[in-house]
Amino acid sequence: MPGDDFETILDQARALPDSERARLVHDLLETLEGSPDTGVAAAWEQEIARRLAQVESGDAETLSRDELNRRLRDQTG
After folding, report:
1. pLDDT per residue as tens digits for the range 60-70
2. Which residues, other chains included, contact 13 with Cβ-Cβ below 8 Å and sequence gap of 6+?
């Protein structure tokens, strides 16, 4: 049956260690999404570095977990 090959592959994938299953999922998703845009990845790296620098210098507005939860409850009702 046509689905037999799929079920066999799925069973084999399930038997892999966690790290190898994660790598398999990552690699399969890449085949669906196409090649990564290195410009986007570089832009995110820069943004992360910028935000981290703001937090470390004390220039960023931060919230406590309680304050964040309160604001989320206020927005969602």
Report:
1. 999 999 999 99
2. 21, 24
